[in-house]
Write a structure and sequence with these properties.
binds S-adenosylmethionine, globular
Length: 255
């Protein structure tokens, strides 16, 4: 009798433990990630950016890709390129036209990905691109992975910029380069830049000097020696904000 009671008790105990385990597990697994539940990375926000990339920002991507491909001799490279916070992936499409690299759209908002894949297919680059959910502050890429990492118009959203830039540095191959920033490339015609800024209104009135200093300080904090801050200023653009970029290199033999 005592033995039977003990068996019943231990059965009940295991039942409770199992219930707690599975309920707890279910609760954990069905809980949305704090990043995605913040309400920022929605389908709606992706649609807004897709609209901008096809409208007001459409003239930006081809010249930027042209400059990146030329400056970093990408026509000779094979391997992986990453566009961090690529969103609609328009820059990637333009980079595919000018390079042989396989490009990864690494973005925190996966709602962009169906549009991105469809657009890549339509341009004949479906076999040369991938998309991956990625938070810049904790990249799920292995060390020394990419030939180049680029990013336009995203870094100011990153929660911990020092950590994000150290992640980019970690993922770069020895000898590889990163080009991260916001705004335009030097080769974008000034008249085009003026029209874009006029349509964007005051929301792009950030302090470029302060942002350049912030990027410089991040490079110092991370001990990255080979780096350059770029503030594109083509002739006649004195009153137009072309933005700010940081170029940094991981030395050869730094695996
Ligand atoms: C203004 S959009 C720029 C999109 C694209 N680079 C372009 O120029 O068209 C900013 C992008 O950064 C992404 N983003 C924001 N925070 C991020 C993070 N922590 N990690 C990765 N991507 C992020 C957003 O989802 C969005 O796609």
């Amino acid at each position: 009798m005592v033995l039977w009671d003990n068996i019943q008790l231990s059965r009940r105990f295991y039942l409770i433990v199992l219930t707690l385990f599975f309920c707890g597990g279910c609760c954990f697994s069905s809980k949305p990630s704090p990043l995605l539940s913040a309400g920022k990375y929605t389908e709606q926000s992706a649609l807004g950016m897709i609209k901008a990339s096809r409208g007001v920002l459409a003239p930006v991507y081809a010249p930027l890709a042209e400059q990146i491909a030329a400056d970093f001799d990408l026509d000779k490279k094979t391997g992986i390129g990453i566009d961090l916070g690529s969103g609609p992936g328009t820059l990637i499409i333009e980079l595919c036209k000018r390079t042989q690299l396989h490009w990864v759209n690494a973005d925190i908002n996966p709602h962009f990905f169906p549009y991105f894949y469809k657009s890549a297919e339509e341009h004949g680059f479906g076999h040369r691109v991938s998309a991956m959910f990625a938070d810049a502050c904790a990249l799920a890429f292995r060390d020394n992975y990419a030939e180049i990492i680029v990013s336009r118009g995203s870094f100011h959203f990153w929660k911990d910029k020092v950590r994000a830039f150290s992640e980019i540095y970690r993922v770069l191959k020895p000898g590889a380069v990163a080009y991260i920033g916001r705004g335009f490339s030097e080769n974008l015609p000034v008249e085009t830049a003026k029209k874009i800024r006029a349509k964007q209104g005051k929301k792009m009135n950030y302090d470029v000097e302060k942002t350049a200093n912030e990027l410089r300080q991040i490079m110092i904090d991370l001990g990255i020696k080979k780096c350059y801050i770029h503030r594109p200023k083509p002739a006649g653009s004195e009153r137009v904000n072309y933005g700010v970029w940081v170029e940094f290199h991981k030395p050869e033999g730094n695996g």
